[in-house]
Amino acid sequence: MNTSASCVAALRGVCKRYGRVEALRGIDLDVRPGELLAALGPNGAGKSTSIALLLGLIRPDAGRVELFGMDPQRIEARRRIGVMLQSAVLPPTLRVRELLRLTASYYANPRSLADSATLAGIEDLLERPYGKLSGGQQRRVQFALALCGRPRLLFLDEPTVGMDIEARQRLWSAMRALVDEGCAVVLTTHYLEEAEALADRVSVMARGRVIHEGTVDDLRARVDVRRIRCVTALTCEQVRAWPQVSDAQLHEGRLQIATVDAEDVVRRLLSADADLAQLEVQRAGLAEAFTELTRDAEAAHAETEREVA
Amino acid sequence: MNMSTTSTFPQTDGVMTPRRVAGAYLAEIRSECLRYLRNPGFMLPLMLFPAVFYLMFGVLMNHGHADAARYLLASYGVFGVMGPGLFGFGASLALERDGGLLTLKRALPMPPGAYLLGKMAMAMVVSGLVMVLMLLLGVFAAHVPLSGAQILGLLALGVFGVLPFCALGMFVGTLIKGQGAPGLLNLVYLPMAFLSGLWFPLSAMPSWLAAIAPVWPSYHLNIIAQRVVGLSDAPVLAHVWILLGVAVGLLWLASRRLRRHG
Protein backbone atom coordinates (compact mmCIF):
# COMPACT_ATOMS: atom_id res chain seq x y z
CA MET A 1 0.00 0.00 0.00
CA ASN A 2 2.60 2.49 1.07
CA THR A 3 4.53 2.89 -2.11
CA SER A 4 6.65 5.99 -2.24
CA ALA A 5 4.47 7.41 -4.99
CA SER A 6 1.49 7.76 -2.67
CA CYS A 7 3.55 9.49 0.03
CA VAL A 8 4.45 13.14 0.18
CA ALA A 9 7.42 12.32 2.38
CA ALA A 10 9.08 9.10 3.47
CA LEU A 11 11.96 7.71 5.50
CA ARG A 12 13.01 4.17 4.54
CA GLY A 13 15.27 2.25 6.87
CA VAL A 14 17.07 5.42 7.85
CA CYS A 15 19.98 5.39 10.29
CA LYS A 16 21.78 8.44 11.57
CA ARG A 17 24.44 8.72 14.22
CA TYR A 18 26.12 11.74 15.75
CA GLY A 19 29.51 10.59 16.91
CA ARG A 20 28.77 7.71 19.29
CA VAL A 21 25.10 8.57 19.70
CA GLU A 22 22.72 6.61 17.50
CA ALA A 23 19.95 9.15 16.87
CA LEU A 24 17.96 6.96 14.47
CA ARG A 25 18.19 3.19 14.17
CA GLY A 26 16.39 2.08 11.06
CA ILE A 27 13.34 4.32 10.95
CA ASP A 28 10.45 3.96 8.51
CA LEU A 29 8.01 6.81 8.27
CA ASP A 30 5.36 7.72 5.69
CA VAL A 31 3.48 10.94 5.35
CA ARG A 32 0.41 10.53 3.16
CA PRO A 33 -1.22 13.36 1.23
CA GLY A 34 -3.61 15.48 3.25
CA GLU A 35 -3.09 13.78 6.60
CA LEU A 36 -1.96 15.26 9.87
CA LEU A 37 0.76 13.08 11.34
CA ALA A 38 1.91 13.80 14.88
CA ALA A 39 5.40 12.65 15.83
CA LEU A 40 5.55 12.11 19.57
CA GLY A 41 8.28 10.98 21.87
CA PRO A 42 10.45 12.01 24.79
CA ASN A 43 13.42 14.32 24.23
CA GLY A 44 16.18 12.59 22.32
CA ALA A 45 13.76 10.13 20.70
CA GLY A 46 14.82 11.21 17.21
CA LYS A 47 11.92 13.49 16.19
CA SER A 48 14.06 16.51 15.32
CA THR A 49 16.60 14.37 13.49
CA SER A 50 13.80 12.83 11.40
CA ILE A 51 12.51 16.28 10.47
CA ALA A 52 16.00 17.58 9.67
CA LEU A 53 16.46 14.62 7.32
CA LEU A 54 13.13 15.23 5.59
CA LEU A 55 14.05 18.89 5.14
CA GLY A 56 17.39 17.95 3.61
CA LEU A 57 19.33 19.73 6.36
CA ILE A 58 21.31 16.59 7.14
CA ARG A 59 22.08 13.38 5.24
CA PRO A 60 21.31 9.84 6.45
CA ASP A 61 24.12 7.38 7.16
CA ALA A 62 21.99 4.61 5.70
CA GLY A 63 18.54 4.30 4.12
CA ARG A 64 16.53 6.55 1.83
CA VAL A 65 14.86 9.92 2.39
CA GLU A 66 12.22 11.14 -0.05
CA LEU A 67 10.28 14.35 -0.33
CA PHE A 68 7.62 14.16 -3.06
CA GLY A 69 9.59 11.23 -4.47
CA MET A 70 12.70 13.40 -4.79
CA ASP A 71 15.88 14.08 -2.89
CA PRO A 72 14.88 16.66 -0.25
CA GLN A 73 17.82 18.84 -1.25
CA ARG A 74 16.18 19.42 -4.66
CA ILE A 75 14.68 22.90 -4.60
CA GLU A 76 11.67 21.65 -6.63
CA ALA A 77 10.79 19.38 -3.70
CA ARG A 78 11.25 22.10 -1.11
CA ARG A 79 9.04 24.53 -3.07
CA ARG A 80 6.12 22.32 -2.01
CA ILE A 81 6.80 22.50 1.70
CA GLY A 82 6.35 25.05 4.44
CA VAL A 83 8.48 25.06 7.57
CA MET A 84 8.15 26.29 11.12
CA LEU A 85 11.20 25.41 13.19
CA GLN A 86 11.45 25.27 16.96
CA SER A 87 13.73 28.27 17.20
CA ALA A 88 14.59 30.74 14.51
CA VAL A 89 15.60 34.31 15.29
CA LEU A 90 14.20 36.30 12.38
CA PRO A 91 15.56 39.78 11.51
CA PRO A 92 14.13 42.05 14.22
CA THR A 93 14.16 45.25 12.14
CA LEU A 94 12.05 43.86 9.31
CA ARG A 95 8.30 44.41 9.42
CA VAL A 96 6.00 41.40 9.37
CA ARG A 97 4.73 42.42 5.92
CA GLU A 98 8.31 42.44 4.60
CA LEU A 99 9.10 39.03 6.07
CA LEU A 100 5.96 37.58 4.49
CA ARG A 101 6.70 39.12 1.12
CA LEU A 102 10.28 37.79 1.20
CA THR A 103 9.27 34.23 2.12
CA ALA A 104 6.44 34.19 -0.43
CA SER A 105 8.93 35.20 -3.14
CA TYR A 106 10.64 31.79 -2.80
CA TYR A 107 7.51 29.95 -3.99
CA ALA A 108 5.99 29.41 -7.42
CA ASN A 109 2.40 30.14 -6.52
CA PRO A 110 2.14 31.70 -3.06
CA ARG A 111 -0.96 32.84 -1.22
CA SER A 112 -1.77 36.52 -1.27
CA LEU A 113 -0.28 38.39 1.65
CA ALA A 114 -3.75 39.15 3.01
CA ASP A 115 -4.78 35.46 2.87
CA SER A 116 -1.67 34.33 4.72
CA ALA A 117 -2.17 36.99 7.37
CA THR A 118 -5.84 36.07 7.86
CA LEU A 119 -5.11 32.34 8.11
CA ALA A 120 -2.47 32.89 10.78
CA GLY A 121 -4.45 35.62 12.52
CA ILE A 122 -1.81 38.33 12.18
CA GLU A 123 -3.70 40.97 10.17
CA ASP A 124 -3.06 43.52 12.90
CA LEU A 125 0.68 42.83 13.08
CA LEU A 126 1.67 43.43 9.45
CA GLU A 127 3.23 46.87 9.94
CA ARG A 128 5.05 46.01 13.18
CA PRO A 129 8.77 45.26 13.28
CA TYR A 130 9.28 41.59 14.11
CA GLY A 131 11.59 42.35 17.03
CA LYS A 132 8.87 44.35 18.81
CA LEU A 133 6.43 41.41 18.94
CA SER A 134 5.78 39.17 21.94
CA GLY A 135 6.94 35.55 21.85
CA GLY A 136 3.46 34.25 21.03
CA GLN A 137 3.00 36.83 18.27
CA GLN A 138 6.38 35.87 16.78
CA ARG A 139 5.28 32.22 16.70
CA ARG A 140 2.11 33.24 14.82
CA VAL A 141 4.22 35.17 12.29
CA GLN A 142 6.46 32.11 11.86
CA PHE A 143 3.31 30.08 11.21
CA ALA A 144 2.22 32.59 8.56
CA LEU A 145 5.65 32.27 6.91
CA ALA A 146 5.25 28.47 6.91
CA LEU A 147 1.91 28.53 5.11
CA CYS A 148 2.41 31.52 2.77
CA GLY A 149 3.83 29.42 -0.08
CA ARG A 150 0.65 27.31 -0.41
CA PRO A 151 2.60 24.18 0.61
CA ARG A 152 1.37 20.62 0.09
CA LEU A 153 3.27 19.55 3.17
CA LEU A 154 3.82 21.59 6.29
CA PHE A 155 6.44 20.83 8.95
CA LEU A 156 5.56 22.26 12.34
CA ASP A 157 8.13 21.67 15.07
CA GLU A 158 6.58 22.44 18.47
CA PRO A 159 4.43 25.21 16.97
CA THR A 160 2.41 26.21 20.03
CA VAL A 161 5.22 26.54 22.60
CA GLY A 162 4.91 29.94 24.25
CA MET A 163 1.35 30.58 23.08
CA ASP A 164 -1.56 31.37 25.36
CA ILE A 165 -4.65 29.17 25.22
CA GLU A 166 -6.56 31.41 22.85
CA ALA A 167 -3.69 31.70 20.37
CA ARG A 168 -3.20 27.94 20.54
CA GLN A 169 -6.87 27.31 19.73
CA ARG A 170 -6.65 29.68 16.76
CA LEU A 171 -3.56 27.93 15.48
CA TRP A 172 -5.32 24.59 15.81
CA SER A 173 -8.26 25.76 13.75
CA ALA A 174 -5.88 27.20 11.13
CA MET A 175 -4.14 23.83 10.96
CA ARG A 176 -7.50 22.10 10.49
CA ALA A 177 -8.36 24.54 7.68
CA LEU A 178 -5.07 23.75 5.94
CA VAL A 179 -5.65 19.99 6.24
CA ASP A 180 -9.15 20.50 4.81
CA GLU A 181 -7.50 22.18 1.83
CA GLY A 182 -5.52 18.98 1.27
CA CYS A 183 -2.27 20.05 2.88
CA ALA A 184 -0.41 17.32 4.79
CA VAL A 185 1.07 18.31 8.13
CA VAL A 186 3.89 16.77 10.15
CA LEU A 187 3.59 18.00 13.71
CA THR A 188 5.94 17.42 16.60
CA THR A 189 4.66 18.41 19.98
CA HIS A 190 5.09 17.90 23.68
CA TYR A 191 1.42 18.61 24.29
CA LEU A 192 -0.39 15.33 23.93
CA GLU A 193 -3.78 17.04 23.92
CA GLU A 194 -2.59 18.76 20.76
CA ALA A 195 -1.98 15.44 19.03
CA GLU A 196 -5.26 14.13 20.46
CA ALA A 197 -7.21 17.10 19.07
CA LEU A 198 -5.61 17.24 15.64
CA ALA A 199 -3.83 14.12 14.47
CA ASP A 200 -5.13 11.59 11.97
CA ARG A 201 -2.18 9.40 12.74
CA VAL A 202 0.38 9.29 15.52
CA SER A 203 3.90 8.00 15.35
CA VAL A 204 5.49 7.40 18.73
CA MET A 205 9.27 7.39 18.78
CA ALA A 206 11.68 6.33 21.48
CA ARG A 207 15.43 5.86 21.34
CA GLY A 208 15.67 6.27 17.60
CA ARG A 209 12.91 3.83 16.70
CA VAL A 210 9.21 4.07 15.87
CA ILE A 211 7.56 2.07 18.63
CA HIS A 212 3.97 2.68 17.62
CA GLU A 213 2.17 3.97 14.57
CA GLY A 214 -1.57 4.32 14.14
CA THR A 215 -4.60 6.47 14.85
CA VAL A 216 -5.04 8.21 18.19
CA ASP A 217 -7.73 5.61 19.06
CA ASP A 218 -5.35 2.77 18.19
CA LEU A 219 -2.83 4.23 20.55
CA ARG A 220 -5.36 4.63 23.35
CA ALA A 221 -6.60 1.10 22.80
CA ARG A 222 -3.08 -0.22 23.25
CA VAL A 223 -3.40 0.66 26.89
CA ASP A 224 -6.27 -0.65 28.96
CA VAL A 225 -5.75 1.59 31.92
CA ARG A 226 -8.75 3.46 33.25
CA ARG A 227 -8.85 6.12 35.88
CA ILE A 228 -11.22 6.11 38.87
CA ARG A 229 -11.76 9.17 40.99
CA CYS A 230 -13.80 9.45 44.18
CA VAL A 231 -14.02 11.07 47.58
CA THR A 232 -13.50 8.34 50.16
CA ALA A 233 -12.30 7.62 53.69
CA LEU A 234 -10.00 4.90 52.33
CA THR A 235 -6.31 5.81 52.23
CA CYS A 236 -3.92 5.56 49.29
CA GLU A 237 -1.94 2.84 51.04
CA GLN A 238 -5.02 0.68 51.57
CA VAL A 239 -6.15 0.90 47.96
CA ARG A 240 -2.67 0.52 46.53
CA ALA A 241 -2.45 -2.87 48.25
CA TRP A 242 -5.35 -4.24 46.16
CA PRO A 243 -4.09 -6.55 43.40
CA GLN A 244 -5.81 -4.88 40.39
CA VAL A 245 -4.69 -1.37 41.27
CA SER A 246 -1.59 -0.16 39.43
CA ASP A 247 -1.48 3.21 41.17
CA ALA A 248 -3.40 5.29 43.71
CA GLN A 249 -2.83 8.89 44.71
CA LEU A 250 -4.57 11.55 46.68
CA HIS A 251 -5.14 14.67 44.62
CA GLU A 252 -7.04 17.71 45.95
CA GLY A 253 -9.00 15.63 48.43
CA ARG A 254 -9.89 12.98 45.86
CA LEU A 255 -8.45 9.55 45.51
CA GLN A 256 -7.19 8.82 41.98
CA ILE A 257 -6.82 5.19 41.04
CA ALA A 258 -5.33 3.73 37.85
CA THR A 259 -6.40 0.20 37.02
CA VAL A 260 -6.95 -2.27 34.19
CA ASP A 261 -10.02 -3.73 35.88
CA ALA A 262 -12.23 -0.77 36.73
CA GLU A 263 -15.43 -2.74 37.36
CA ASP A 264 -13.83 -4.94 39.97
CA VAL A 265 -12.14 -2.06 41.75
CA VAL A 266 -15.36 0.00 41.81
CA ARG A 267 -17.29 -2.94 43.29
CA ARG A 268 -14.67 -3.32 45.99
CA LEU A 269 -14.54 0.43 46.67
CA LEU A 270 -18.31 0.65 47.16
CA SER A 271 -18.40 -2.28 49.54
CA ALA A 272 -15.41 -1.00 51.52
CA ASP A 273 -16.71 2.53 51.96
CA ALA A 274 -20.47 3.07 52.16
CA ASP A 275 -20.00 6.88 52.25
CA LEU A 276 -17.99 6.99 49.04
CA ALA A 277 -19.02 9.98 46.87
CA GLN A 278 -18.39 11.70 43.53
CA LEU A 279 -17.42 8.53 41.72
CA GLU A 280 -15.97 8.95 38.21
CA VAL A 281 -14.53 6.38 35.81
CA GLN A 282 -12.56 7.53 32.77
CA ARG A 283 -10.78 5.83 29.94
CA ALA A 284 -7.07 6.61 29.86
CA GLY A 285 -6.09 9.56 27.71
CA LEU A 286 -3.31 9.71 25.21
CA ALA A 287 -1.01 10.87 27.98
CA GLU A 288 -1.33 7.63 29.96
CA ALA A 289 -1.04 5.52 26.81
CA PHE A 290 2.05 7.43 25.78
CA THR A 291 3.68 7.11 29.19
CA GLU A 292 2.94 3.38 29.23
CA LEU A 293 4.38 2.85 25.72
CA THR A 294 7.55 4.79 26.26
CA ARG A 295 8.05 3.14 29.66
CA ASP A 296 7.81 -0.26 27.96
CA ALA A 297 10.40 0.86 25.41
CA GLU A 298 12.70 2.07 28.16
CA ALA A 299 12.28 -1.21 30.03
CA ALA A 300 13.00 -3.22 26.89
CA HIS A 301 16.08 -1.11 26.33
CA ALA A 302 17.30 -1.64 29.88
CA GLU A 303 16.71 -5.38 29.38
CA THR A 304 18.89 -5.57 26.25
CA GLU A 305 21.55 -3.47 27.97
CA ARG A 306 21.64 -6.02 30.79
CA GLU A 307 21.83 -8.92 28.33
CA VAL A 308 24.71 -7.28 26.51
CA ALA A 309 26.52 -6.70 29.79
CA MET B 1 -16.00 34.03 -2.26
CA ASN B 2 -13.92 30.90 -2.19
CA MET B 3 -12.91 30.31 -5.79
CA SER B 4 -10.73 27.26 -5.29
CA THR B 5 -12.22 23.86 -4.59
CA THR B 6 -10.68 21.82 -1.83
CA SER B 7 -7.50 19.84 -2.37
CA THR B 8 -6.69 21.33 -5.74
CA PHE B 9 -3.07 22.24 -6.11
CA PRO B 10 -1.69 23.72 -9.29
CA GLN B 11 0.14 21.14 -11.37
CA THR B 12 2.95 23.57 -11.91
CA ASP B 13 4.01 23.76 -8.27
CA GLY B 14 7.73 23.31 -7.81
CA VAL B 15 8.41 24.97 -11.15
CA MET B 16 9.17 28.68 -11.16
CA THR B 17 9.45 31.06 -14.07
CA PRO B 18 12.87 32.75 -14.45
CA ARG B 19 11.10 35.99 -13.71
CA ARG B 20 9.92 34.76 -10.30
CA VAL B 21 13.35 33.33 -9.51
CA ALA B 22 14.91 36.71 -10.28
CA GLY B 23 12.24 38.27 -8.08
CA ALA B 24 13.30 36.01 -5.20
CA TYR B 25 16.92 37.15 -5.52
CA LEU B 26 15.82 40.80 -5.58
CA ALA B 27 13.54 40.29 -2.56
CA GLU B 28 16.45 38.79 -0.63
CA ILE B 29 18.75 41.70 -1.51
CA ARG B 30 16.07 44.23 -0.63
CA SER B 31 15.33 42.61 2.75
CA GLU B 32 18.98 42.31 3.67
CA CYS B 33 19.66 45.98 2.85
CA LEU B 34 16.56 47.20 4.69
CA ARG B 35 17.23 45.23 7.82
CA TYR B 36 20.76 46.58 8.27
CA LEU B 37 20.11 50.15 7.13
CA ARG B 38 17.42 50.26 9.85
CA ASN B 39 19.80 48.98 12.51
CA PRO B 40 21.68 51.89 14.13
CA GLY B 41 23.76 49.50 16.22
CA PHE B 42 25.21 48.22 12.96
CA MET B 43 25.33 51.42 10.88
CA LEU B 44 26.63 53.98 13.38
CA PRO B 45 29.98 52.37 14.29
CA LEU B 46 30.67 51.58 10.65
CA MET B 47 30.00 55.18 9.57
CA LEU B 48 31.45 56.98 12.60
CA PHE B 49 34.72 55.08 13.11
CA PRO B 50 36.35 56.16 9.83
CA ALA B 51 34.63 59.57 9.77
CA VAL B 52 35.70 60.58 13.30
CA PHE B 53 39.25 59.29 12.81
CA TYR B 54 39.53 61.24 9.58
CA LEU B 55 38.15 64.42 11.18
CA MET B 56 40.64 64.11 14.03
CA PHE B 57 43.80 63.14 12.19
CA GLY B 58 43.06 64.45 8.70
CA VAL B 59 41.41 67.77 9.58
CA LEU B 60 41.76 68.95 13.22
CA MET B 61 45.29 67.74 13.99
CA ASN B 62 46.55 68.30 10.47
CA HIS B 63 48.20 71.71 10.16
CA GLY B 64 47.99 72.53 6.51
CA HIS B 65 49.56 69.39 5.06
CA ALA B 66 47.45 69.03 1.93
CA ASP B 67 49.03 65.69 1.00
CA ALA B 68 48.37 64.27 4.47
CA ALA B 69 44.67 65.13 4.16
CA ARG B 70 44.66 63.46 0.74
CA TYR B 71 46.57 60.36 1.94
CA LEU B 72 44.31 59.93 4.95
CA LEU B 73 41.13 60.42 2.91
CA ALA B 74 42.13 57.41 0.83
CA SER B 75 43.46 55.32 3.74
CA TYR B 76 40.56 56.01 6.11
CA GLY B 77 38.29 55.40 3.15
CA VAL B 78 39.82 51.92 2.89
CA PHE B 79 39.41 51.51 6.66
CA GLY B 80 35.73 52.43 6.25
CA VAL B 81 35.30 49.91 3.44
CA MET B 82 36.64 47.03 5.55
CA GLY B 83 33.91 47.32 8.21
CA PRO B 84 30.75 46.54 6.23
CA GLY B 85 32.45 43.50 4.71
CA LEU B 86 33.87 42.09 7.93
CA PHE B 87 30.90 42.85 10.19
CA GLY B 88 28.06 42.70 7.66
CA PHE B 89 29.16 39.23 6.63
CA GLY B 90 31.07 37.86 9.58
CA ALA B 91 29.03 38.99 12.57
CA SER B 92 25.66 38.39 10.91
CA LEU B 93 26.63 34.94 9.63
CA ALA B 94 27.91 33.92 13.08
CA LEU B 95 24.70 35.14 14.73
CA GLU B 96 22.40 33.58 12.15
CA ARG B 97 24.16 30.23 12.37
CA ASP B 98 23.58 30.39 16.09
CA GLY B 99 20.00 31.72 16.05
CA GLY B 100 18.64 29.20 13.57
CA LEU B 101 17.88 31.67 10.76
CA LEU B 102 20.42 30.01 8.47
CA THR B 103 18.87 26.60 9.17
CA LEU B 104 15.40 27.94 8.35
CA LYS B 105 16.67 29.52 5.13
CA ARG B 106 18.30 26.24 4.13
CA ALA B 107 15.03 24.40 4.71
CA LEU B 108 13.01 26.99 2.76
CA PRO B 109 13.14 26.97 -1.03
CA MET B 110 15.38 30.03 -1.17
CA PRO B 111 17.20 30.01 -4.51
CA PRO B 112 20.84 28.87 -4.25
CA GLY B 113 23.28 31.60 -3.31
CA ALA B 114 20.56 34.17 -2.56
CA TYR B 115 21.61 34.34 1.08
CA LEU B 116 25.20 35.25 0.22
CA LEU B 117 24.20 37.49 -2.66
CA GLY B 118 21.87 39.44 -0.37
CA LYS B 119 24.57 40.01 2.22
CA MET B 120 27.11 40.92 -0.46
CA ALA B 121 24.78 43.51 -1.99
CA MET B 122 24.06 44.93 1.46
CA ALA B 123 27.80 45.23 2.22
CA MET B 124 28.36 46.97 -1.14
CA VAL B 125 25.57 49.47 -0.46
CA VAL B 126 26.75 50.26 3.08
CA SER B 127 30.37 50.48 2.00
CA GLY B 128 29.36 52.87 -0.80
CA LEU B 129 27.54 55.02 1.78
CA VAL B 130 30.63 55.08 4.01
CA MET B 131 32.67 56.28 1.05
CA VAL B 132 30.12 59.01 0.24
CA LEU B 133 30.44 60.28 3.81
CA MET B 134 34.25 60.23 3.60
CA LEU B 135 34.14 62.10 0.27
CA LEU B 136 31.88 64.77 1.78
CA LEU B 137 34.30 65.21 4.68
CA GLY B 138 37.31 65.23 2.35
CA VAL B 139 35.88 67.83 0.01
CA PHE B 140 34.03 70.12 2.43
CA ALA B 141 35.90 69.74 5.74
CA ALA B 142 39.46 68.92 4.68
CA HIS B 143 39.23 70.86 1.36
CA VAL B 144 41.01 68.17 -0.64
CA PRO B 145 40.65 69.11 -4.30
CA LEU B 146 39.38 66.07 -6.22
CA SER B 147 38.58 65.65 -9.91
CA GLY B 148 35.33 64.04 -11.03
CA ALA B 149 37.25 60.94 -12.08
CA GLN B 150 38.90 60.68 -8.65
CA ILE B 151 35.52 60.95 -6.91
CA LEU B 152 34.03 58.27 -9.13
CA GLY B 153 37.14 56.15 -8.63
CA LEU B 154 36.83 56.30 -4.83
CA LEU B 155 33.11 55.48 -5.03
CA ALA B 156 33.85 52.44 -7.19
CA LEU B 157 36.59 51.45 -4.75
CA GLY B 158 34.04 51.71 -1.96
CA VAL B 159 31.49 49.52 -3.71
CA PHE B 160 33.82 46.81 -5.08
CA GLY B 161 36.70 47.00 -2.61
CA VAL B 162 34.43 45.56 0.06
CA LEU B 163 34.29 42.14 -1.62
CA PRO B 164 37.55 40.61 -0.29
CA PHE B 165 36.52 41.73 3.21
CA CYS B 166 33.11 40.11 2.73
CA ALA B 167 34.93 36.85 2.01
CA LEU B 168 37.22 37.33 5.03
CA GLY B 169 34.25 38.15 7.26
CA MET B 170 32.36 35.13 5.96
CA PHE B 171 35.34 32.90 6.71
CA VAL B 172 35.57 34.23 10.28
CA GLY B 173 31.79 33.80 10.59
CA THR B 174 32.16 30.10 9.84
CA LEU B 175 34.83 29.70 12.54
CA ILE B 176 32.80 31.06 15.43
CA LYS B 177 29.13 31.06 16.37
CA GLY B 178 27.03 33.68 18.13
CA GLN B 179 27.95 36.68 20.23
CA GLY B 180 31.72 36.05 20.26
CA ALA B 181 32.05 36.95 16.58
CA PRO B 182 32.11 40.79 16.83
CA GLY B 183 34.97 40.61 19.35
CA LEU B 184 37.00 38.29 17.16
CA LEU B 185 36.28 40.48 14.12
CA ASN B 186 37.54 43.56 15.96
CA LEU B 187 40.73 41.64 16.66
CA VAL B 188 41.09 41.26 12.90
CA TYR B 189 39.74 44.66 11.87
CA LEU B 190 41.74 47.12 14.01
CA PRO B 191 45.22 45.51 13.95
CA MET B 192 44.92 44.84 10.23
CA ALA B 193 44.02 48.46 9.56
CA PHE B 194 46.94 49.69 11.66
CA LEU B 195 49.47 47.23 10.20
CA SER B 196 48.53 48.05 6.60
CA GLY B 197 49.38 51.72 7.07
CA LEU B 198 45.82 53.01 7.08
CA TRP B 199 46.29 55.13 10.24
CA PHE B 200 49.96 56.11 9.82
CA PRO B 201 51.98 55.73 6.64
CA LEU B 202 54.12 52.58 6.71
CA SER B 203 57.24 54.75 6.49
CA ALA B 204 56.50 55.93 10.03
CA MET B 205 56.51 52.34 11.36
CA PRO B 206 59.30 49.92 12.32
CA SER B 207 60.72 48.44 9.14
CA TRP B 208 59.88 44.82 10.02
CA LEU B 209 56.19 45.76 10.46
CA ALA B 210 56.25 47.56 7.14
CA ALA B 211 57.87 44.50 5.55
CA ILE B 212 55.00 42.16 6.50
CA ALA B 213 52.29 44.65 5.46
CA PRO B 214 51.71 42.94 2.06
CA VAL B 215 50.11 39.93 3.79
CA TRP B 216 47.07 42.07 4.69
CA PRO B 217 44.42 42.56 1.98
CA SER B 218 43.84 46.12 3.19
CA TYR B 219 47.46 47.00 2.27
CA HIS B 220 46.72 46.21 -1.36
CA LEU B 221 43.42 48.10 -1.38
CA ASN B 222 45.22 51.13 0.12
CA ILE B 223 47.80 51.10 -2.68
CA ILE B 224 44.97 51.18 -5.22
CA ALA B 225 43.23 53.97 -3.27
CA GLN B 226 46.42 56.08 -3.18
CA ARG B 227 46.72 55.70 -6.95
CA VAL B 228 43.07 56.80 -7.33
CA VAL B 229 43.64 60.03 -5.37
CA GLY B 230 46.83 60.71 -7.34
CA LEU B 231 49.46 60.25 -4.61
CA SER B 232 51.21 57.40 -6.41
CA ASP B 233 51.59 56.20 -9.97
CA ALA B 234 52.60 52.65 -9.15
CA PRO B 235 50.96 49.97 -11.31
CA VAL B 236 47.96 48.50 -9.48
CA LEU B 237 46.93 45.55 -11.64
CA ALA B 238 48.88 43.04 -9.54
CA HIS B 239 47.14 44.33 -6.39
CA VAL B 240 43.72 43.94 -8.02
CA TRP B 241 44.55 40.32 -8.82
CA ILE B 242 45.77 39.68 -5.28
CA LEU B 243 42.51 41.06 -3.83
CA LEU B 244 40.48 39.01 -6.28
CA GLY B 245 42.47 35.91 -5.32
CA VAL B 246 41.93 36.60 -1.60
CA ALA B 247 38.18 37.01 -2.22
CA VAL B 248 37.80 33.83 -4.25
CA GLY B 249 40.07 31.76 -1.99
CA LEU B 250 38.38 32.74 1.27
CA LEU B 251 34.92 32.40 -0.27
CA TRP B 252 35.81 28.87 -1.34
CA LEU B 253 37.15 27.96 2.09
CA ALA B 254 34.13 29.48 3.83
CA SER B 255 31.56 27.75 1.59
CA ARG B 256 33.32 24.45 2.16
CA ARG B 257 33.14 24.93 5.93
CA LEU B 258 29.49 25.99 5.72
CA ARG B 259 28.56 22.92 3.68
CA ARG B 260 30.35 20.63 6.11
CA HIS B 261 29.38 22.15 9.41
CA GLY B 262 26.28 24.25 8.66
Automatic annotation (TrEMBL), chain A:
A UniProt-annotated Pfam family: ABC_tran
An annotated Gene Ontology molecular function: ATP binding
InterPro entries registered for this protein in UniProt: AAA+_ATPase, ABC_transporter-like_ATP-bd, ABC_transporter-like_CS, ABC_transporter_ATP-binding, P-loop_NTPase
Gene3D superfamilies for this protein: P-loop containing nucleotide triphosphate hydrolases
Domain spans labelled ABC transporter: 9-232
Entry-linked PROSITE patterns: ABC_TRANSPORTER_1, ABC_TRANSPORTER_2
Keywords in alphabetical order: ATP-binding, Nucleotide-binding, Transport
Annotated transmembrane regions: none
Superkingdom, taxonomy of origin: Bacteria
PANTHER family: ABC TRANSPORTER ATP-BINDING PROTEIN (PTHR42711:SF17)
Name of the featured protein: ABC transporter ATP-binding protein
